[in-house]
Amino acid sequence: NAGVTQTPKFRVLKTGQSMTLLCAQDMNHEYMYWYRQDPGMGLRLIHYSVGEGTTAKGEVPDGYNVSRLKKQNFLLGLESAAPSQTSVYFCASSYITGPGNTIYFGEGSWLTVV
Amino acid sequence: KQEVTQIPAALSVPEGENLVLNCSFTDSAIYNLQWFRQDPGKGLTSLLLIQSSQREQTSGRLNASLDKSSGRSTLYIAASQPGDSATYLCAVIHAQAGTALIFGKGTTLSVSS
Fold first, then answer.
1. According to the model, what pLDDT value does residue B97 have?
2. Which among B34, B43, B99 is the nearest to A31, CB-wise?
3. How far apart are the CA of A14 and the nearest CA of chain B, in angstroms?
4. For residue range A26-78, what is the model confidence (pLDDT) as tens digits?
5. Which residues pair with A77 in a beta bridge?
């Protein structure tokens, strides 16, 4: 039972490079999310998706793009990485929204932009 | 805008103590409130979920309460153990904001043996 899997786990990028973080879930969840976690800032929502083919902006979307071509995958792209995007990125998924919603998180992806 | 605050930011206790972690939120229109545990270098593990219609949830030595009207939740940990050392995060789903969790910054707990 894999749950939510993120790849890669660690990555070092040079300023201006691009990369894609992959999130995969095997629970048939409709909702998927990308968060970033920074010291002193807590977790902040970057983008989210409420179903295959849909995406929406969260609290801090600038500098990121996302795609949800398949229900089980949610990709987070950095087109031109900046040092301010050095962070730990967490993907999460849930079956439904509302009072009974339980959200499951991946193990995180550590990204350093130099 | 919904804001979630956790107090204290850090807490150190000797093994065996009972302790309370606090979480407050500014808008009472929430679907639910969740408490998570995060170990260093790891992801988040859901501990307890309290739906908006509920007052508390219990799991083992953990008890979480919810007072929507006052915008407060507490996580009670009984008979703390060194293995409880971690960061504890509180998060709410705002009923009008849709689907995503809004997190507090966490309380880092250290239990010494």
1. 56
2. B99
3. 23
4. 999 999 999 999 988 889 999 999 899 999 999 899 999 999 999 999 999 99
5. A20, A65
